[in-house]
Amino acid sequence: MFEISYKSEGKGLKKSKKMAVLAFFNKEKLKNETDEFIKKHNIVIPDILMDKFLGHDEESVKAYTYSSPEIIKLVKYDVKKLNTDFFRNSVSKFIIELSSEKVSSASIFIPEDKVFLKIFNTKNNYLRSFIEGAGLGNYEFNKYKSDKKKSLKLDVVFHSGFSKDFEEAIKTSRNVLEAVYFSRDIINEPAISLTPEILAEKTMKLFKNTSVTVEVWDKKELRKNKMNAILAVGGASSNDPRLIILKYKSTKKNCPKIALVGKGVTYDSGGLSIKPTSSMLDMKIDMSGAAAVIGAIYAAAKNKLDADLIGVIPAVENMLSGSSYKPGDIIKTYSGKTIEVLDTDAEGRIILADALYYASKQNPDEIIDLATLTGACVVALGEYAAGIFTQNDQISGGLIKAGNETFERVWSFPMWDEYAELIKSDVADISNLGPRWGGAITAAKFLENFVTKPEKWVHIDLAPAGKNKLNSYSEKYHTGFGVRLLYRYIEMMQD
């Protein structure tokens, strides 16, 4: 794609060669706004295209001209139907379209209707949606292609009356986008080149010149600390498990202390309860929770958010061998509680049992775990929202608000005690699998057993981790869902 630079300018357009322009217009004022824009900037668009745009035929129109700008795209918006992803998605689509063009600059005109502040809550959120759109649309994973094209330089210029505000938004968004890129890269990386050990190495490299400390426990350290759940799931692979611990401390005193726990199954074959081939193809994404935690802490540290963060990532491969853990096994976890294994393909909750108890021992104000935990959550919500499970309405409300603002949306499920009855075991403290119905909830109720203060804990089941057709920037590559959600949630604590 492009090597992008971002900058902000006023409302005037400085024409240059190889230029593309994107502009937005309110449907209710369409004719007047488009006439004024075209006249002000001396832009020529064929009548046949303008007739379609001004009528009901097209929501957007793109024209190629014989002068500068060489490409012009006009997009309509309906204030009554706007959501917080409209501009992000539109800009992303524009950048994707330009990837096949030889352009050197893209000028994006920002509409300035006051109603946007009601939709986006803050001006900064509104402006960041445009910057994020350009960055997310520019993402690609072409590491293993032999015919890679050289990246062209693209100056993305945002035109508005918000120049000073835009500079701050650009600075913040650059770091968030860098975090999302890293998370997407490791999710899209094939499992053969992202083992637990390599995940730990990449994480250490990412945080090398930051204020975040990284500690990695190998198999010996895991045994020493009796993290038998992680050891059991990772025991069949020739690639040993790891526990990755991240710590970021703000320079400000009395900050909220938040533990983020991310499932890091770098590949999931299902173990002895083996998956069919079709279900294994995308199992490299089973460490999306880990990727979200790493990315969120990186963005928070780079932007110096006022929060003390602890990241806990159990990293394993769930494979098959003579040392595989087995259905019927009983595992004594780090907490001392025992798990009866009914299905080795319900492995994520097992490794999270050790990680959540470790996080609890750090005495945080809140614990948030993220995991591609159940297909049941995808059945319930599709790929467009993550499931959220908690007994704390305040935390869930904050995450729902952050999700709506970033369009990484979450939706609450019940956590009634009746569901806990479904995972009781006759031979251990708890079993790792409940009945077919309510599988996402029983998985969450399983995890609840391993946090010492359940009232301060939230579980997020990452249904949208894989690529999906919700928007232009999630269609081709796995998404890195959760980085922007967590970052905004932590950032909101300072608003």
What is the element layout, followed by pairings?
Elements: E1 2-9, E2 19-26, H1 30-40, H2 47-54, E3 60-64, E4 71-77, H3 86-98, E5 105-109, H4 115-120, H5 123-137, E6 152-159, H6 163-188, H7 196-206, E7 213-217, H8 219-224, H9 228-234, E8 242-248, E9 257-262, E10 264-268, H10 277-280, H11 288-302, E11 308-318, E12 330-332, E13 338-340, H12 348-360, E14 366-371, H13 375-381, E15 386-390, H14 393-406, E16 410-413, E17 430-431, H15 439-448, E18 457-461, H16 483-492
Parallel strand pairs: 1-6, 2-4, 2-5, 5-6, 9-11, 9-14, 10-11, 13-17, 14-18, 15-16
Antiparallel strand pairs: 3-4, 7-8, 8-11, 12-13, 15-18
| CATH architecture annotation name of the largest domain | 3-Layer(aba) Sandwich
The percent range for strand residues is: 15-25%
Report the average pLDDT across residues. 96
Radius of gyration based on Cα positions = 24 Å
- Assign a percent range to the helix content: 25-40%
